[in-house]
Amino acid sequence: MQRFDQDIIVNLIPRGARVLDLGCGNGDLLTKLKRSGVSDIRGVEIDDRCIAACVRKGLTVFQGDIDEGLSDYDDASFDYIVLNQTLQVVHKPTLVIQEMLRVGNRAIVSFPNFGYFRIRWYILTKGQMPKVNFLPRDWYDTPNIHLSTISDFQAFCRTRNIAIERLIGLKSCATGKPVAHFQNLLSQVGIFVIMSEREIPN
Amino acid sequence: MYVVDAVPRIQHYTIDALTLDCGRTLSPVQVAYETYGQLDAAKDNAILLMHALSGSAHAGFVNDTGEQGWWYDFIGPGKALDTERYFIICSNVLGGCSGSTGPGSIDPATGHPYGLRFPVITIGDMIRAQKCLIDSLGIETLSAVIGGSIGGMQALQWAVDYPDIVRSAVILAAANRLSAQGIAFDEVGRQAIMADPCWQNGDYYDGTPPRTGLALARMIGHITYLSEESMHEKFGRALKGGDGYGYKFSEDFEVESYLHYKGNRFVERFDANSYLYITKAMDYFDLPDLTLIKSKMLVISFSSDWLFPPERLKALVRTLRRKRKDVTYCDVQSSRGHDAFLLEVGPITELLSGFLDNVYGR
């Protein structure tokens, strides 16, 4: 399946940027970044089979748990830290986001938007945890423990002095069509570019 | 010139003189080595492999005495170190006892074996000897330096000392220094040898070697190479005869019998003084400054290794990451302890072949 969310993230990152991808999986996003000419790229991944797949692709990856933080990285040692479709599975989202903003000048965070209208409709009509194409698993069988909405994440950033530089709502990962209005209602995926409030350029 | 040998043959190179970290000069120095595969015309497909404490230059294939190499499963056509693509060199370490100059070699000044008159050597000295060998083969760059345990220490030293020669380094079950626990085990092993009356302050070459001491050192060492889990799986509390306890201080348990077997087999092929010298080199090894490294690196730990626990390797990788080195790290899930670097063929092959493909180019 074409992952337009990855393509959009690739387009957000300039060549020459230093990039760290947290939860890089099989290294698909890193490979796309590499092809687009971004060369200083690293990944962190917990699963050893994924590590082997990344090694085969010639990527530089570290096997580790992002919930343990990024304490061994110096402040601002990357231009972009990416957390693509992973926020909802981490145990300590606040710590992970804080660490991303310490180590990176900017963070790109994407997650499935629980505010999407079909999800609201599903709960309203069935009264059960929603199972939709982009959240296909049963409540007892899902790795997702911190699901949120675009609106939730905006509030999260507001209360923590995190500036949202960009928000892109995607109708779906499969079409990559951005949503112009009512993003919390009409997007399946939210992609945020965020940075610490104090670092906003004038 | 370098032909693929179906049966690898040990070869020797002699260095006129080698100046050591301790300040002394050793002359001459013989380096025993084996090679597998063919060096290509551009001489850029060479891989230097380094053995662990008790290993030898015989890393791959089956030699003329019918013995499999210590990394047999990883070397050969289609294997991780593919002999159809790479030219692999493995030499016996300086201070060893399998063909390279060590404390058991004849001291030209006296006409007798060196014994303790052999200078104390370091990991740095070992790789300087290897560098002379590489030079003699006309090799200017190494696609990879690879080693496990003390071999991994050497790989790391190579990457620091010769950053412009080493294109990549693979370090398995090793770190940039030996832990206090590791030094402690080494010292107990050395004391076992030196407490053996046959040791004779190292001058036993004309008489009986300190077999009991060396076997004991090996038994202690061997415990550190296994894990609690692998010992439980392999032996449990199984009794040797299966007929209940003997109510004597003979071998009751399988695990005892196994350690005795390992110890006794070891003394047939290993020199006690070499054990002293090589473990000392291991203890001295400490590379705090990794700034000079330029090569791409692959670091592999094994989850149940308690001689080089994953945390120690992670600490090494963290240091390298902070210095923005190109380092990939994987912790292979294994119950086989430190020895996993010799045994986990599947996961290591997957990582190593993928890594080398990208270094050497498909």
Description:
- The complex is a heterodimer of chains A (202) and B (362).
- Chain A has an eight-stranded mixed beta sheet with strand order 3-2-1-4-5-8-6-7, sandwiched between helices.
- The mean pLDDT of chain A is 93.
- Chain A has one domain (4-195): Vaccinia Virus protein VP39 (Rossmann fold), CATH 3.40.50.
- In chain A, α1 (4-12) crosses α2 (28-35).
- Chain A is globular.
- In chain A, 30% of the residues lie in helices and 24% in strands.
- Chain A is of the alpha/beta class.
- By secondary structure, chain B is α/β, with parallel strands linked by helices.
- Chain B folds into two domains: 11-176 and 286-360, Alpha/Beta hydrolase fold, catalytic domain (Rossmann fold); 182-281, Orthogonal Bundle (Rna Polymerase Sigma Factor, Chain: A), CATH 1.10.1740.
- Helix content of chain B is 35%, strand content 16%.
- Chain B is built from ten helices and 14 strands.
- In chain B, the strands form four sheets. Chain B has an eight-stranded mixed beta sheet, with helices on both faces.
- Chain B is globular, with a radius of gyration of 20 Å.
- The two termini of chain B are 25 Å apart.
- Mean pLDDT of chain B is 95; it is low at 1-5.
- The A-B interface holds A 42, 48, 51-52, 54-64, 72-74, 77 and B 296, 298, 314, 317-318, 321-322, 324, 326-333, 347, 350-351, 354-355, 357-358.
